[in-house]
Amino acid sequence: TAARLVLGIESSCDETGVALVRTEPGGAPRLLAHALHSQIDMHQAYGGVVPELASRDHIRRVVPLARQVLAEAQVALPEVDLIAYTQGPGLAGALLVGAGVACALGVALERPLLGVHHLEGHLLSPFLSADPPEFPFVALLVSGGHTQLMRVDGVGRYALLGETVDDAAGEAFDKSAKLMGLPYPGGPHLSRLAEGGRTDAFELPRPMLHSGNLDFSFAGLKTAVRTHLVRLGWLDQPEALAAPEHRATLVDLAASAQAAIVEVLVKKSLAALKQTGLKRIVVAGGVGANRLLREQLNQACQRRGVRVHYPELHLCTDNGAMIALAAAMRLQAGLAEPQRAATFEVKPR
Ligand code: KG4
Ligand code: ZN
User: Fold this and answer.
1) Ligand closest to the CA atom of residue 10
2) Which ligand minimizes its atom distance to the CA of 143?
3) Which residues bind Fe cation (predicted)?
């Protein structure tokens, strides 16, 4: 089988990503180029993603990004063999932009389309790192919308071991951060604020830590953070939250919240490794960029002879490379059923 070129488009939420991946006969797919535009600055003023604004901005960005990627890879558009797009989950309007552009390209070039599950993109993203994993492995998927543990036996062979029953881990970071007056998206901001803080300064719940299964619950954490802020008299008080004399206390609260989330993620990951007997774990999704999570998971796994794999830091959050890669790996595994270009479908849920 000859090498094939896959163009991937991601537009499920607030990042527009485009990438070119080449499948190598008998080898791992290779990333030729990728480009990304983050809408974070645009949504920051609203404290969260505004779906309509997200869709409009994807429309503005996607073609210039595609041009950039093709130029960087020195590939002419007609050389592309397959066009992959994020099919879901995500914001319907935002997804439709990537799918619509993919479809237009497919019609114009007479090339097939492949819709990719956003989480499969995250899950497979460590295969683009310098230290790619081997199957089988446990996967901890931690993003703004999902928190799942999976057993992964190969491309397309995924078994759900456990997941959150309410908020996702990223949501727990973001909602706690918002209560503390930090900008959107709160995860990285809360993590930065937490540096040097005392992790035991505030009592916070570790829900379902001893539930005996591999499910998670994070909604109670946000409520507990809120309760602490009410007791301090700082809830919805931007001036109090920004006051320099209160900073040390907020640093402690951030450190305590982060420690609670990370402890649950690490303990459940270890339980999943124990249950499956596997000696390899992949961490993917935006929260996988969290430094404390990486430190604690690395430490715990080292002691147990477990290998931990991460995507490269810049591929932890949403990007087009993981979508092109997932499509390429599906294609190589003989799992892809590319669509004729005149039809496309998005699955927001
Ligand atoms: O995977 P992702 O980019 O988008 C989704 O598919 O949801 O993940 C975004 C999430 C957000 O909740 C963000 O706050 C969180 O990942 N995040 C972090 C860090 N970087 C991103 N959370 C904690 N620490 C970080 N360093
Ligand atoms: Zn994502």
Assistant:
1) 2
2) 1
3) 118, 122, 318
